[in-house]
Design brief:
This protein is mainly β. The protein folds into 4 domains: 22-126, Immunoglobulins (Immunoglobulin-like); 133-214, Immunoglobulins (Immunoglobulin-like, Sandwich), CATH 2.60.40.10; 218-308, Immunoglobulin-like, CATH 2.60.40.10; 312-403, Immunoglobulin-like (Sandwich), CATH 2.60.40.10. Helices cover 6% and strands 47% of the residues. Strands 1, 2, 3, 5, 8 and 9 form a 6-stranded mixed sheet that branches. The longest helix is centred in the first third of the chain and has 17 residues, at 2-18.
Length: 404
Amino acid sequence: MRLRITVTLAVLCLTGLALASNAAAGDFADDPCSTVVGDNYTCPTATAGAPYAIDIKLKEPWPGCTSMAVSSGVFPPGLSLASEGNIRGTPTAAGSYSFFVTVTWSNQAPCVSQPPSDRKFTINVNPPVQRLIVGTSSLPDANIGQAYTAPALSASGGTVSSWSLASGSLPAGLTLASNGVISGTPTQSGAYGFMVQANGTPNNDTKQLSLFVLAPLDLGLAPAGTAVAAQPAVVNMKLATPFSWGVKGTGGREPYAYSADALPAGITLNADGTITGTPTQAGQTRSTLTVKDVNGTTDTLRVTFTTRALLAFHKTKQPKVGKVGKLYTWRLPVAGASETKIFLVSGRIPPGLELDEETGELTGTPLVPGTFKVKFWALGDAGTQISKTYRIKVQDVNRVTANR
């Protein structure tokens, strides 16, 4: 019995909602389209090019249970009707547009299914209001120190009697004439923002513009683009040692693109102009680096990269000949970019001689004649080590004199 009473009360509640007023379910409200001619309801007038918003409503709204749609006729272009009855948009063409809006009902609980209903509406769209509008949207770049004349500023929708600067300032050296022409010779580079004003009828209009004054494009040394006094620039690096350097463009118009016609093995030119890597081969590389700005303007920098081996024995230099009883001095012919060097020896050096491990000098007074096969080692930075075997001759002074 309790269950039957509960169901009955629920049905009575739903019926009470549907019949809460004298309006039939699905009846359209008279507002906002209240001007009625016959069966046609005229909505508030719209204007082409201006935002428009009204809400078609029902006298007894059932949120979530009804859906509205244009079922026939011609709907104003640029507007749209949401299922809730909201008309929004910006009409794009003047005219008188009549159309039918149909309401459909959901049959899902708690909605009460009703037959569809419709109503005829008319929206009149007036022609756009004539108004003066500045049409110029951009200005060509200028170059510092060069005469500049931009195309005259333009506007539509009215008559311009003069042009003026509403706010901001032009680059130093440039002026805006009353005929809308910006001209002169800029004396300072950079980006400048300002607002121009068209003075005329039926109204005045303003527009925010910008003008970029280019400095000459130049490729210099990073990080600040420092100018290079003489070319080619000389850059030294060490074999098998991480290297970092770089170039930077200034002036022109960013973004920049960097390129190189040649680089040492193991070295890379990055997109930001930095040059990094670890050289893998000793020697000299002549390179031309180029920067190109967004306008296609280029500048170059000639560079000579010299990659020095950390350590290397001279290819041809040989030990000096020693004489018994005579002072002897000979320095191992080792060169290279290593900051530190340590010299070692293996094998039998001539008696009376010794090797200085820090300087690489072999000094002393030979005691016996002969030819001595000796292997020398040189140790440097980053664990670099090289070796070479030499034959050191020591002559007997007495025998040399006797032979004469």
